[in-house]
Amino acid sequence: MRNHKSSLRKVVSLGLCAAMLLTACGKAKTPQTGNTEASGGTVAAEPATSPSEAPAPAADAGLHNLEDGVLDIGTSIKWDSLTPFRSQVANNAPWAAEVYETLARLTYDKEYVPLVAKSWEGEDDGVTFNIEIYDYVYDAAGNHITAEDIVWMIESNMEAALKPSFGKVESVEQTGDYTLKVVMKQDMVGAFEQILTGGYVISKASYEADKDGFATGIVSTAPYTITEFTPGATMTLERREDYWQKPELIHPSCSANVQTIKYHTITEASQAGIALETGTLDGFITLDHNTVAQFEGNDKFTYVATPFINGSQMFFSGHDSRSIANDVNLRQAICYAIDAQGLLNAVYAGYGQTMKDPIADTSVGWLEKWRSEDYYEYDPVKAEEFLKASGYNGEELILLGGSSSQMQRLAQMIQSYLMAVGINVKLNLVDQALLTSIRLDGSQYDMFINTVGGDMLPDHWSIRYDMNAYKTGDGTARHDEALAELLYSTWTREGFTEENIDKVHIYLKDNMYAYGMVQPSNVDIWRSDLGMTEEIRISQGSHNFAACSYQE
Hints:
alpha+beta, globular, 13-stranded mixed beta sheet
């Protein structure tokens, strides 16, 4: 039996004796060996104490120099609806953990800590898990949360089928007023933990009584309530004075140290820079890398660059209607033709590193030895050789991607690199709604630029390469039985070994179903006079400004 003091490190130690990689070996502007570096400005160092070891911040920790009493934070992420039953898109929204609670939280140092769940245990079969929640959980309207609400929440997510993690649940049942049992479909490292961290806890009665299903307002157990919401634009949060959890049991990563915080969605990079310089914003989460340059040498601002959980990858169609699906030489030619370091410098202003696998090196299971491997380093001569060996006859290949300004720059550079070796590329850059609707349909493209990550390798593998993950096949409509068998034998707790993980890596690299290009750094910035004394980050690396501590 396994208790709730589980962490990703401990899960992996059952089969993989490898150190957890929380930092990346860097280029000129990438943090190295756990330190944070950037050019100019005031650069914050890594906290001396990890979040799991740090004492809980004082409940009355204040914010310095806020004339209106509101902490204004910018972000490029937007929610058009507050519904709790949502897809994984924008699941790293900075306000998500402040307006919705989950059963547990994954911290920045990859530890699972209790939130609404008091404890959990896994049975020896690897698929059965027992959860106990606190018996005094109440939402902002005074609704008492019981195991019935949690069972309903899990079943509703299973029915909605918007989060792949809930598709891995076989059954869930209430076993007591505050206990329940979850049975997973298969033994898969990290799958149950995604249930702990992926479902938003709300009262069934409160949700069903709301006429629009919490689309514009939320009643949740979280420490903040929403006082103002303009879809896709702004959201104002006010700290609850009647929050249910006992102060001594609140983990630092779950703290609510800001009375009022307002999030502003700004998707245009130049506008974000202006808003910071004019004082409209006090900080910005995941600032565009090229905009960071205007704050270099400006000691009025502090910025931090950390390795991000997401990478920028190219996935190749696996649909039989696209010739590239069965032409490994063409796929390899494309990879050799792309200068990943050039992409890093031009698109991400040097903040980050080139990749050695389609998954970022922050993921548990990523092997250090990959760092020294040859991985399709830029070589136009090799690209032309592989192109000659392929079945390519000059036809136009479709490159699918999002429509953000950063994605446009990335796609245009890739198009230029490929044209230089004789590969014709047509760009199809679409808005997020259309991208979401066609991204799994490999018949719609030859290449697809995506920015995906995962806390663990099996998480990434299951949503991208499992031929049984979707009705159409894997994430690109490919059906590879050999890869599926390899995945299924590797991602069990017993099979998750360094040897097996490396076999998957080699198989993907040899067949080149996906090419890891750039792992950008995540850059957060804030006014230095806020007096931040302790940095708290979410598991993806971004700062949780509400949980950070500030001088009085």
